[in-house]
């Protein structure tokens, strides 16, 4: 079975753990096809993959309402975190904009924009990019060059290399985050990050439906619960 997977879900380890667990329990091989959520959903619509696992709910719902995706299931939940450069240790630690430990993501993004601090945006069409649009709107900011730069590949690694701010999935940060960056903002309810699996309307691979049932069931919940940065889907 060919499963299109948002790149961030591969980077965080979530996709590979689902792949291994499902293969172990069913004997069915799953080929992971990495990509950006928007691109993968277009590919799913054309029937070029059997199922997709993405974190772009607005785009997913649009496809589902058109009848071009079936059996959409919530399989894991997490959140986005805003990371940035941190200097010093303990209570004296500070970032250039002064938003460390801020809880309001809109306020933090507005401060970054006002300071024209370097910000690395996620690739256009990725789950993080789609998720960030509402957050920038809440901040009443239209991010633009030269302070805002859209990454073409790996926003977290680019932000680390350039000592910049970035919005990333918590699971990605747990798996790959490091100094000089640290989490600046977390915990705002608007930063929720949901992962869904759905299968294509145009193809009917028997394993695609089975995979959706498995990841949305108790086995899949155990996998999600075992990974830092992710929570299992509710029963």
How would you portray this structure in words?
- Strand 5 (119-121), helix 6 (127-138) and strand 6 form a beta-alpha-beta unit.
- Strands 1, 2, 3, 4, 5, 6, 7, 8, 9 and 10 form a ten-stranded mixed sheet that branches.
- The chain has helices at residues 7-11, 14-26, 37-45, 57-65, 105-115, 127-138, 155-162, 170-176, 206-215, 218-225, and strands at 2-6, 31-35, 51-54, 69-85, 119-121, 148-150, 165-169, 181-185, 192-200, 231-232.
- The protein starts with a strand and ends with a strand.
- It folds into two domains: 2-77 and 192-232, D-Maltodextrin-Binding Protein, domain 2 (3-Layer(aba) Sandwich), CATH 3.40.190; 95-188, Periplasmic binding protein-like II (D-Maltodextrin-Binding Protein, domain 2, 3-Layer(aba) Sandwich), CATH 3.40.190.
- It is an alpha/beta fold.
- The longest helix has 13 residues, at 14-26.
- Helix 2 packs antiparallel against helix 10 and helix 5 (105-115) crosses helix 6.
- It contains ten helices and ten strands.
How would you concisely characterize the structure shown here?
The protein is an alpha/beta fold and 235 residues long. 39% of the residues lie in helices and 25% in strands. The protein folds into two domains: 2-77 and 192-232, Periplasmic binding protein-like II (D-Maltodextrin-Binding Protein, domain 2, 3-Layer(aba) Sandwich), CATH 3.40.190.10; 95-188, D-Maltodextrin-Binding Protein, domain 2 (3-Layer(aba) Sandwich).
């Amino acid at each position: 079975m060919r499963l299109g997977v948002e790149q961030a879900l591969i980077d965080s380890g979530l996709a590979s753990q689902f792949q291994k667990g499902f293969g172990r329990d069913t004997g069915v091989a799953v080929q992971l096809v990495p990509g950006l959520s928007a691109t993968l959903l277009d590919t799913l619509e054309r029937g070029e993959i059997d199922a997709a696992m993405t974190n772009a709910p607005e785009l997913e719902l649009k496809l589902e309402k058109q009848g071009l995706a079936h059996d959409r299931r919530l399989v894991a939940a997490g959140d986005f975190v805003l990371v940035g450069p941190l200097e010093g240790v303990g209570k004296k630690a500070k970032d250039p904009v002064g938003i460390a430990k801020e809880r309001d993501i809109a306020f933090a993004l507005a401060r970054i924009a006002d300071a024209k601090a370097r910000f690395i945006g996620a690739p256009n069409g990725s789950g993080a990019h789609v998720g960030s649009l509402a957050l920038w709107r809440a901040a009443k900011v239209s991010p633009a060059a030269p302070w805002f730069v859209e990454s073409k590949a790996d926003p977290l690694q680019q932000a680390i290399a350039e000592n910049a701010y970035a919005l990333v999935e918590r699971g990605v940060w747990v798996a790959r985050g490091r100094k000089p960056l640290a989490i600046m903002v977390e915990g705002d309810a608007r930063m929720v990050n949901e992962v869904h699996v759905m299968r294509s309307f145009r193809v009917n691979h028997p394993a695609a439906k089975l995979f959706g049932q498995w990841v949305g069931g108790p086995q899949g919940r155990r996998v999600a619960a075992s990974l830092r940065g992710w929570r299992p889907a509710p029963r």
